[in-house]
Amino acid sequence: MARRTSIADIARMHAEDRRITMITAYDYTSAALVERSGIDMILVGDSLGMVMQGRDSTLPVTVDDIIYHTKMVMRGAQRPLVISDLPFMAYAETSDALRNAGRLMAEAGCQSVKLEGGASRVATIKALIAEGVPVMGHLGFTPQSVNTIGMKVQAREADAAAQLMRDALALQEAGCWAVVFELIPAPLAKAITERLDVPTIGIGAGPDTSGQVQVWHDLLGLYEDFVPRHTRRYRTLADEALGGLDEYAADVRSGAFPTDANSSKMDDDVLAAALAAIDDEAGR
Q1: Which end of the chain is less congested by CB atoms within 10 angstroms, N or C?
Q2: Which of 182, 194, 247, 281 is catalytic?
């Protein structure tokens, strides 16, 4: 069995200026494919609320949901570092954060949790780290605050950009081993990355962060029409899947599937004996 990537391995990659790869995964099959790809890290994100549960936002996702999906991912991937999101309101109080992060690590087996927010989260982060829970930070567009900040690029103005930089430094000082920057201007992400000692992971934050994370469904084109600006569609699996489903349905309707090659045989005498027994029971 391959050794699982550790936070120390990621720190070493960062120190050696090697780019870090990260993608979301939510089940056994997707995790097994990530395993084969050689991608460094998996995020079991609360984005599963939208891409797996069909919700309008991440807000309805529960700790139990994250645990369920993380367990599947852990079974599918033995090598990547696995980070699980603490969902909305799961860390409103430090006691909540300790209880829920403990469940994610003990029950689901992830190697780190991720939470959203800056300086206001420092006390919670320090408490988690003191209990042995590694924490990845998340700044910029924070999906759990979508109703407050709107779904748009953040920190375009000088005051907001300066505050985001302060927040990033505060997260590093609190002990976060990495920080995700989502939907912030590329020059700002570059400037903060240059000032931090820990890796930065970008999504919609330009090319100069330490690494990148993308959502599985966006990257592989599992939505037929929608392509977020911050992603690149490397495959269009929705079209492939739909084509296969159409061909399957047509073959069933025409009788072209299944064929003898897809079926199991039975000795005629055995079948005749079985039918005769049934007929005798029915008094025929």
Answers
A1: N
A2: 182
Cα–chain-centroid distance for residue 221? 15
- pLDDT, average across residues 201-221: 97
The domains of the chain, with CATH numbers, are: 7-235 (3.20.20.60), 248-281 (no CATH)
Instruction: For tokens 């300066």, name the residue.
Output: 162
- In the predicted model, what is the mean pLDDT of residues 133-151? 95
d(CA 160, CA 194): 18
Q: What percent of the chain has pLDDT over 70?
A: 99
Nearest to 74 by CA among 65, 85, 83: 83
pLDDT tens digits for range 72-110: 999 999 999 999 999 999 999 999 999 999 999 999 999
